[in-house]
Write a structure and sequence with these properties.
The complex is a heterotrimer of chains A (285), B (217) and C (300). Chain B is α+β, with helices and mostly antiparallel strands and 217 residues long. Chain B contains seven helices and four strands; from the N terminus they run βαβαββααααα. The termini of chain B are far apart. Chain C is built from four helices and 16 strands. In chain C, the strands form three sheets. A six-stranded antiparallel β-sheet of chain C has the order 1-10-9-4-3-2, with no helix packed on it. Chain C is globular. Classes of the chains: A alpha+beta (285), B alpha+beta (217), C alpha+beta (300).
Chain lengths: 285, 217, 300
């Protein structure tokens, strides 16, 4: 366990993704940064991943969902689990890891956001004039975090295999300060949900890596198309994120004005504040 | 139909998509898993381009790599107006070639900085950014004086050439590599003008231009 | 924002050449560490706003200028010219946005060919350009031409730039001298003074005019107005003043005179540009050079 003087336990003693396993498979050795700490990852010939900070070994390293997860402190709970991932007709795929010069909390909030879909992702996840966001419900999760249900957005091309536009139902959940997941109705089996998760790795307070993970029903899905679509969509978000000022997420009221459509982001900021999150945030003074 | 070996987030591929759309040439995209699959370095693609780079086009069996070369070929063959690449004007061709070379330098600096910042490429990032700024300074000065003489484009007065297409993507995406365009107001006006050409196509990271004023009746 | 005394915050600074603040475009600039979005509406009115949408902080300079509003690139929120009031929120299209939602508007105006901005809440006194008493007033057959120069970005603090200009800027009285390469006129080599002194007229440490004259009796001047972008970055804005003989006095046709005037103007722009870039390069190089003095550690 590494020495930590100042980072809040809710982050220090939790699991974070630090790399796609595929990157280590290709490069064998990878240096990255988590919560300001530089770590070196190595893949040995037997397929085990080890992690070091300087000469010191980091004990808590695990491979799950195609990613390398790490805890710098002493893990207080397990890595997030998704029941959907155990279903036999699912395709699990990492969809790319992209570095972004903004606080990871901004990246999570962007993922939750509905009213940008018709603008930033025009023609794909939303379209003018269908910009209205009707009332949806946000409530806290017992294990921590928030869940937003009843979200509806008209989407011209909601997924790689969608052939026409339709009103899509979304459910969003923030499971950790830096982990967010969305569930949307599968275009073929409308009663079941495709899942996309963003495991955000906080590098510093003002930069992060967004690791995307998808858990789609297999119908006609090609992993390369899934990855390509996710990269395309995130490629549209990234320049918006990098043009946000300040880079850290303000948790107080006053400098940024939410409206009703921003219910989940407002709840997210309140929850972060209540949970004592400071890293990547501008706390309420 | 022309085949384009493509990656959506590649600025060099974007140059080819821009000219194909501007010339209204239909084409088929063959998308490679550039990242994180590094498919452009895979054996099957190395047979097509031993440099392992995108874009590559296949026009009825005629295969060409290098985005600048592809711009020359497509504009020579498929632009009956001759405005994008004026084959009969030696001075214009010379200027265009000069700026195609400049575009190569942008790839080595601004584009490489972007690969470092987004996809963890291991390069000397400060050197790349400094190199990009040095080029943007030169480009801004050139465009400013061109504007003073009533020229809207890099090498010409009234219509862009492939020189503008070649330089545009990595200038437009410079901020994704940590290179701000705040000090380059003439460049910012030029990128706006380019975005207004007919059939101009966007890519992630490139926002549309402000709606133009209606022409007076 | 940089910490500055209120007197600086409440001054007018040039931030762009007026002719470059074109319609259907947004200029991105910076003053005293504060990013500003400058834009012109279709009626010609200039706006200078804090470069940050009040919704989620996205830069307004990447947004759309519709001619009457700025539209944020993130969620499409729209803000009216002049007031900066939010006029439309697409997520709630039938509701009128609260009047409390607006951009942060800075005072702006246009004068001397530039857009000027002040950051503080109170409107300061209008800027006056320095004038050089020794610059000849136009005779009946000549006119004093003022040409705004290309604004030059320098990676150096404003104080260093001002000092370099005042101490070392050299330029010719007539850059388009038909006799060949322009001879450099004499220029005051005096240091910064509080008042007009020799060939320099100083209004403020960052606003001054320099004059020169050549052996043919031609005189010219250049006014420099500095924009402190950040603590380490400056924009040099300039106005060149030159005597220009009247058309009638030289007996040429109007068409030839227009072409000649355009050529002279370009020569003037290029001349000052070449002098300014040489100065910029020297200032930037000086900042990169290792300091000649080494501080000796104190011995215990």
């Amino acid at each position: 366990m590494l020495e930590n003087s100042h980072i809040e336990s809710v982050l220090w003693d939790d699991w974070h993704v630090v790399a796609e396993l595929a990157r280590l498979t290709r490069f064998r050795r990878f240096v990255t940064t988590l919560l300001g700490v530089s770590v070196t990852l190595e893949l040995d010939p037997t397929g085990n991943v080890s992690a070091r900070r300087g000469g010191e070994t980091i004990a808590s390293v695990q491979i799950k969902y195609g990613f390398v997860w790490m805890c710098l402190g002493s893990p207080t709970r397990d890595i997030v689990e998704f029941a959907e991932c155990l279903e036999p007709d699912r395709l699990l795929a990492t969809a790319g890891s992209v570095r972004v010069a903004v606080s990871g909390l901004r990246a999570v909030e962007n993922f939750l956001d509905l009213s940008h879909l018709a603008f930033v992702h025009a023609g794909y996840l939303g379209e003018e004039p269908h910009t209205e966001i009707k009332q949806y419900t946000v409530r806290p999760l017992a294990e921590g975090g928030i869940i937003a249900t009843g979200c509806k957005v008209y989407q011209p091309k909601a997924s790689p295999i969608a052939t026409e536009g339709y009103d899509v139902d979304y459910i969003y959940a923030v499971l950790r300060p830096y982990i967010v997941v969305l569930f949307k109705a599968n275009p073929v089996e409308l009663s079941r949900k495709d899942m996309i998760a963003l495991f955000v790795q906080p590098i510093s307070e003002e930069s992060c890596v967004a690791h995307a993970f998808t858990c789609y029903l297999k119908h006609g899905i090609d992993p390369a198309a899934v990855r390509s679509f996710q990269q395309f969509i995130f490629g549209q978000d990234r320049p918006i994120l990098e043009n946000q000022l300040p880079k850290r997420l303000p948790l107080g009221v006053g400098t940024e004005v939410p409206v009703r459509a921003d219910g989940s982001s407002a709840a997210y900021r309140r929850w972060l504040s209540d949970a004592g999150i400071r890293f990547g945030a501008i706390p309420v003074t | 139909m022309i085949k384009l070996y493509n990656y959506e987030l590649s600025g060099n591929c974007y140059k080819v998509r821009l000219i194909l759309d501007a010339l209204r040439i239909p084409y088929e995209r063959i998308d490679l898993d550039f990242y994180p699959g590094y498919e452009h370095k895979s054996p099957w693609f190395l047979c097509i381009n031993p440099l392992g780079q995108l874009p590559v086009i296949d026009d009825g069996g005629f295969i060409l790599r290098d985005s600048q070369a592809i711009l020359v070929y497509l504009s020579s063959k498929y632009d009956p107006s001759g405005v994008w690449y004026p084959r009969d004007d030696a001075e214009a061709l010379g200027r265009i070639a000069m700026w195609l070379g400049f575009a190569e330098n942008l790839t080595a600096t601004a584009a490489t900085a972007r690969l470092h910042d987004t996809m963890f490429y291991d390069v000397d990032i400060e050197k790349c950014r400094a190199g990009a700024h040095a080029l943007l300074r030169i480009l801004d000065e050139h465009l400013w004086f061109a504007e003073q003489e009533g020229h809207d484009w890099l090498c010409s007065r009234d219509h862009p050439t492939i020189a503008d297409i070649a330089c545009f993507p990595y200038v437009m995406l410079s901020e994704e590599g940590g290179v701000s365009r705040l000090p380059y107001p003439a460049i910012r006006r030029w990128t706006d003008r380019l975005k207004r050409i007919p059939h101009f196509t966007l890519m992630p990271g490139v926002f549309g231009a402000s709606p133009p004023q209606a022409s007076p009746a | 924002m940089l910490k500055d005394p209120a007197s600086i915050v409440n001054r007018w600074f040039p931030v762009a050449r007026s002719e470059e603040v074109i319609t259907r475009h947004v200029v991105q600039t910076q003053l005293l560490g504060q990013e500003i979005a400058v834009w012109r509406d279709d009626a010609g009115r200039v706006n200078a706003w804090e470069n940050r949408c009040p919704h989620r902080g996205v830069r307004l300079s990447i947004g759309f200028n519709t001619g009457t509003e700025l539209r944020c690139q993130y969620h499409g929120w729209r803000y009216a010219t002049g007031s900066g009031q939010c006029t439309f929120i697409p997520a709630h299209p039938t509701q009128k946005p609260s009047t409390s939602i607006h951009t942060n508007v800075y005072g702006s105006m246009e004068q001397y060919g530039f857009v000027w901005v002040h950051l503080g809440p109170q409107t300061p006194a209008l800027p006056t350009l320095p004038t050089l008493p020794t610059l000849p007033t136009p005779a009946t057959a000549a006119t004093l031409q003022a040409t705004t120069l290309r604004s030059l970005f320098v990676e150096a603090p404003t104080s260093a730039v001002a000092q370099a200009l005042l101490r070392g800027y050299r330029f010719a009285a007539d850059p388009a001298d038909d006799a060949g390469s322009p001879s450099e006129g004499s220029l005051s080599d005096g240091s910064m003074g509080e008042d007009s002194m020799g060939g320099a007229s100083v209004v403020a440490h960052d606003q001054f005019m320099l004059a020169t004259a050549d052996s043919n009796g031609r005189s010219a001047a250049v006014t420099f107005l500095l924009q402190p972008m950040t603590e380490s970055q400056t924009v040099i804005h300039g106005i060149a003043h030159a005597m220009s003989p009247a058309v009638e006095a030289r007996g040429e046709t109007v068409a030839v005179a227009v072409t000649e005037r355009a050529a002279k103007r370009l020569a003037l722009l290029r001349h000052h540009h070449s002098q300014m870039t040489a100065l910029r390069d020297a200032v930037e190089r000086a900042l990169l050079a290792p300091t000649p003095h080494r501080v000796e550690p104190s011995t215990p």
